[in-house]
Amino acid sequence: MNPEPLSTGKAQDTVLMRRSGAYGLGILLSRLTGLLREVLLARALGTSPGASALVVAQIFPNLVRGLLSEEVAQGAIAPVLRDAAREDGRQIVLRLTRMIAFASTVALSLIALLAIPLTDAVVAPVAGPLPDEAVRQAAVMLTALLPVIATAGMAASGAALLVLEGRVGVLASLNTLSNMPLVLWLLVAPDVTPVTAAALIGLGLVLQAITQYSLALRGGARLAWPRRERSREIRKRRRSQYREVLFLGLPVTLALGAANLSGLVDTAFAARVGSDGPAALDKAFRLMLLPYGVLGLAISVAVMPALLTAVNERDFLGQLRAAAGTQIALLLPLAVMLATSAEAAVELVFAGGAFDQQSVESTARALVGMAFVMPALGLSALGTRAWTARSRPWVPAGASLVAMVANALLDWLLVDAYGLLGLALATAIVHTVLGVGLLAAAGVWSLRLLVIVRVLRLVAPAAFSAPVAFATRSLVGDALPFVELVAVASAIACVTVVGAALLGVPAYTRLLAIGRRRRKT
After folding, report:
1. Over pLDDT 70: what percentage of the chain?
2. pLDDT at 220
3. Which of 348-352, 406-410, 502-506 has the lowest mean pLDDT?
4. What is the pTM of this model?
5. DSSP three-state, residue 392
6. pLDDT surpassing 60 at residue 479
7. Which end of the chain is more exposed for a tag (fewer CB within 10 A), N or C?
8. Is the dihedral of CA 416, 417, 422, 426 positive or negative?
9. Angle at 62 between CA 61 and CA 68, to 5 degrees
10. Taking the CA of residue 62 as centre, how many other CA atoms within 13 Å lie in the half-sphere pointing to its CB?
């Protein structure tokens, strides 16, 4: 049941990269299908008011799914299942998983039913200045998406068991299912209405939740009805486990709720920029999610099983430092590339059909800031896991609530002057401060001069590549978007690798060493 533990030095990096690779491969598949879905949807709807209405309609279901997502699974359910596995064995773990799934499904189904007559009231505050017809469409689409809420608990329970057993690659690849119904529909019938798109998105997410839960229990996926345990001691232990899920789940849920509410606030401010604002911001976010999911999120998820089974504090911090260094080494150069060639990236991926030049320009402005959200999200996700793995989730919960308020304030300060770019930059700033603060408080980094120098040395290669990237973009001029992206990416890679070698940055040298070892094998 326990995943393979990480030791120190090279073994940490090798095992981390192997797990990250398994999760990253699954996430790559799901992100590519998700990106295909967004490309086809963009060409069908562009950044029209209907497309913005679809973004608004997904906020409430996504908020509930986020509150019972893999984060809650890892931060609240997985530690309890880990303890149950050590004390009672796998059969009790399976029963506990079923009981959690049953209770959450009943509660969330009631929430979904109660939300049916309230859809207009839910979407109206977020839709803001969108046309009345778009607001009405958003309410109808929200009704079609409510079944997603009812199955979120099953998805979270299944995710917790998969993470505990180290089957992160399976967990990641299952995200592909959520995209397939809409992708297949758009390939057959490219002209789709926003309401039909919402129904197909909901169908995909429900299929993913059911399949994820079924595979986690290896075919024994049935919702367990509560039954009275024979032993008083066992009943006492079960009540203690359920209380622990609630105790750990509440702060993780608060933290995720704060993060999702920040996204809701961003969408509301984006509607102030224009009727195309929510759709353009959403497209930039989803484009950023492809590299973030494959690299940043993969590392954060892959390190979690080892954090749960760390043998001592030194081992725990060593794993976190390796993961943080790897994230920065991979995500910062990618952020520079996306920010430098944002318009080329958007044009290459989305341009065509209803996604006209105005849609390209508004999405590109958002992507410039969203590029730096990518490493910021990686740090904040890793910082949150540093505390939830220690069963102290109230620390990131409190920090996330403060971050939500700070994000809303920065949105208000920057939106009028910088539009969608300002909203993305606000998110990047807040999550960077949040992630660095959580990791520093966990003991990964400190304010000692030596540590500060190491961090600056880690960031320096990507910083040096920025002026070279802008110069390269100027040299290629009006080249095709693909040519510009390849030229800029090549320039950034060369400068980053040379700079890391000259500065002796360990994170880069370890990545290169792992790559050489894999080629030899």
Report:
1. 74
2. 45
3. 502-506
4. 0.71
5. coil
6. yes
7. C
8. negative
9. 95
10. 18
* Tokens describing residue 363: 């999405």
Locus of tokens 């709720």: 257
Residue type, 185: W
Q: Considering only CA atoms, which of 12, 3, 171, 170 is closest in space to residue 82?
A: 3
Phi/psi zone of residue 446: left (φ > 0), alpha (ψ -120 to 50 degrees), beta? beta
Q: Please state, in angstroms and as integers, the Cα–Cα distance from residue 172 to each residue in 152, 168, 208, 322, 327, following that order.
A: 16, 6, 11, 22, 18
pLDDT: is 496 or 248 the higher one?
A: 496
Nearest to 284 by CA among 345, 337, 328: 345
- Non-local CB neighbours of 308 within 8 Å, separated by 6+ positions: 3, 78, 79, 82, 164, 389
Task: Using CA atoms of 152, 156, 162, 164 in order, give the dihedral in degrees to the nearest 10.
Answer: 180
Q: List beta partners, residue 352.
A: 355
Tens-place pLDDT, residues 334-356: 999 999 999 999 998 888 878 88
Domain boundaries, the chain: 10-445, 446-521
* Amino acid symbol at 73: A
Instruction: Give residue for tokens 């992206």.
Output: 485
| pLDDT value of position 90 | 65
- Rounded to 10 deg, the angle between the 152-164 and 49-67 helix axes is 60
Q: Determine contact, residues 394/251, Cβ cutoff 8 Å.
A: yes
Q: What is the DSSP string of 201-233?
A: HHHHHHHHHHHHHHHHTTT---PPPP---S-HH
CB under 8 Å to 301, separation ≥6 — which residues? 23, 70, 74, 163, 168, 171, 172
Residue with tokens 């893999």: 70
Which letter does DSSP use for residue 312 in this model? S
* Single-letter residue type at 269: F
Residue 415 exposure: Cα atoms within 13 Å on the Cβ side:
21
CB 53 within 8 A of CB 141: yes
Q: Which two tokens stand for residue 120?
A: 């207009």
Residue 322 CB burial class (10 angstroms; 0-12, 13-18, ≥19): buried
Q: Which two tokens stand for residue 41?
A: 């949807």
Kindly report the backbone phi and psi dihedral angles of residue 480, in degrees, each rounded to the nearest multiple of 5, phi listed first: -60, 150
209-221 residue pLDDT tens: 888 888 887 744 4
Residue 332 amino acid letter: L
The predicted pLDDT at position 1 comes to 46
